[in-house]
Write a structure and sequence with these properties.
The structure is a homodimer. By secondary structure, chain A is α/β, with parallel strands linked by helices. The two termini of chain A are 23 Å apart. Chain A has 11 helices and 17 strands.
């Protein structure tokens, strides 16, 4: 039987596995440190489409097709699809996965959505609701700037605490069939609100949520920081990482040598002028698919806590003066021989 | 063990129950046919807030508190919350449920979200991931018009095929504890796209999805229309109902005497000038809580197929000329002695 652990976690007795994954990224990501690791990149960030939104949908579909193709699985052999993105009413997902015709659970967890999708996929497989689930998320620099900030044509200046939204999509086939990476547990995040209101400093808004979920995970599973080879956040960036370290220290945990942030590894901060680092649903997803999973698969990392982080704002709530709370979901990934 | 049924359904061996529910609605809904049945209504559609968005959040919180209070359950005794709304980045939910501090799965399924939330809550309880889950959704006429159409101050004319977004929120406590209503199964919907592009005729956009999910449910469970006392869609309205009847007829099913649509019962079409009927995440949710569940609880209806319907559009996708696909999730509700 699956087990409830502590206040917010589940451990899976019979673990679901990440059978395969696919990553698609844009031109700037292709020039970054992980550029060679993505399954597919495109010099044209429109991915053959006429709009940024359609481009994002195309990436999402490609990522799904890649994950399915690598495992020789047809869409109709996938029971449910869990997917989401950053756009209003999740259109990148609805338009992206439509042609796959897999029964869909649409999600919204801001940039934590890849964690949410993996958690629900793993929970559904472990409960016997199907042999295979597909988890997919995406973000696109063009569509995200248009949605949250300013249209690209305005050429607005960005503060140094601002993130660069990753153009990318990652899809994960989660199932009962054995692979070298299992999902051994999940920690479902709560909304954490420190009252911050600066939409150009998402790292600060999300760091408290990351801290909350990491601490909860350690407590729920009775583990210490040393029990993980890496604790990997989604897109806190340079500013958020500093805050996370301080907050964790305040709780008596030192995670400095174990911590990695997807937003900090996906771009070269200096040469790529990406300020606080990469962000977006796609950031954690493509880094997991292209960089983290291969290391776990090979056994280089035995146990990783993957914690995608999200900032829960909209342009409307922000303009009305509401604060920007954060949320983060923790996924425990383990190497299997 | 829970059982996979057919292509898209699950039947629960040990059924989760709807332990309690709460409904909050606005002034127009209070004047409608169901007005006296809601747990709470307010003559002030701002619900004490300064913005429509905050008003919607307040309703959502109240609906949750009502559902919890009726069952004498504290927020910390609820394992996970599944919630969503129609606004960009689901802010009504993030802001609404924040103070409850229940680990959150944010959802987006347009007006089908109440079905999605109930399905995932039931799946989580049946899998043993917790004793109790909370499913909540909301919509608000003011915030929805601002989000999708025109600010209210413009006083735009509405075509007769347009819906009137329901101001309301419904919350459902789903758990292992026995009640008189059990969730015996779910049918997870696929995206169904007939290529329609008229955002003022949502009924037509959603009817094909409703048909698809109802037919799939009957096939997956090996049932006929007669096996249900009612087949209840979320917000097809008068236009959508006609189309649904035709589409069902085309598949060899006559559901006319069994069908009810929440969007058609919540307002009095003539005296309230609501055109095609009510719509929104809140429409199906408050109708379920205030009108449908009591009938099942009393045994007046023994088995009901509840099918909230959603139209997957955003103002961006719509303005870019994309079609409006639909999605619908089916929840099988049964009377228990």
């Amino acid at each position: 039987m699956n087990q409830i652990r502590g206040a917010q976690s589940i451990s899976f007795e019979v673990s679901p596995y990440i059978i395969s994954s696919g990553s698609v990224a844009g031109s700037k990501e292709a020039e970054g440190p992980l550029g060679k690791l993505f399954d597919m990149t495109n010099q044209d960030d429109l991915f053959g489409a006429k709009t940024w939104e359609e481009a994002e949908s195309n990436m999402q579909k490609e990522a799904c097709v890649l994950a399915l193709g690598k495992a020789h699985v047809k869409p109709q052999e996938v029971r449910f699809l869990f997917g989401g993105d950053l756009l209003r009413q999740g259109v990148a997902t609805s338009m992206g996965v439509e042609s796959l015709q897999i029964p869909l659970f649409g999600l919204y967890g801001a940039c934590s959505t890849s964690g949410e999708a993996l958690a629900l996929s793993a929970m559904s497989v472990a409960a016997g609701y199907g042999e295979r689930m597909l988890a997919v998320t995406s973000s696109h620099f063009g569509s995200a700037e248009k949605e949250f900030r300013f249209p690209l044509g305005y050429a607005s200046q960005r503060p140094l605490s601002a993130h660069w939204t990753v153009t990318g999509s990652g899809a994960f086939l989660v199932g009962a069939e054995k692979s070298h990476v299992r999902i051994s547990g999940v920690t479902v995040g709560k909304i954490v609100d420190y009252g911050l209101k600066d939409s150009q400093n998402m790292g600060a808004c999300m760091a408290p949520a990351a801290m909350d979920t990491i601490v909860q995970n350690l407590e729920d599973f009775g583990r210490s920081v040393e029990d993980y080879d890496r604790i990997i956040t989604g897109d806190l960036g340079y500013v958020g990482q500093d805050i996370l370290f301080d907050l964790m220290q305040g709780k008596g945990y030192d995670i400095r040598i174990k911590h990695m942030d997807c937003g900090m590894v996906i771009f070269d901060q200096k040469s790529q002028d990406t300020h606080a680092g990469g962000s977006g649903c796609g950031c954690a997803a493509v880094t997991l698919s292209s960089y983290i999973l291969p290391k776990i698969r090979k056994g280089e990392w035995k146990r990783v806590l993957f914690v995608p982080t999200g900032a829960l704002l909209s342009t409307v709530s922000f303009n009305e003066g509401a604060s920007i709370p954060g949320i983060a979901h923790g996924i425990v990934l383990e190497h299997v021989n």
